[in-house]
Amino acid sequence: MDDALRAVADPTRRAIMELVRDGERSAGELARNFPGISRPAVSQHLRVLADAGLVDVRRDGNRRLYALRPEGLDDAAGFIERMWSAQLRRLKEAVENE
């Protein structure tokens, strides 16, 4: 969960995740969406996402294709849900006690 949360803390990585949400995209295609970032930097972001289990990487000849792994966020989403639910429960109790 820590790696996933660190990975999504970066806005470029979140943008990459949105780009691969609906299907595979090549590293080159992804890099074209970030003209202000070097291609090696985009590759580094992709490596962080892959290492965190947030994207799958598939080789197709000399290309690498990336696709979102939504289940990579399951632990983080569960943690946030537990924290949010506890806060809502406390708020509900406070309102009902007034």
From TrEMBL:
Keywords (A to Z) from UniProt: DNA-binding, Transcription, Transcription regulation
Membrane-spanning intervals of the chain: none
Ranges of residues in domain HTH arsR-type: 1-95
Pfam families: HTH_20
Keyword Signal: no
Name of the featured protein: DNA-binding transcriptional regulator, ArsR family
GO MF annotation: an example: DNA binding
Leader peptide range in chain numbering: none
Listed PROSITE patterns: HTH_ARSR_2 (PS50987)
Domain of life: Bacteria
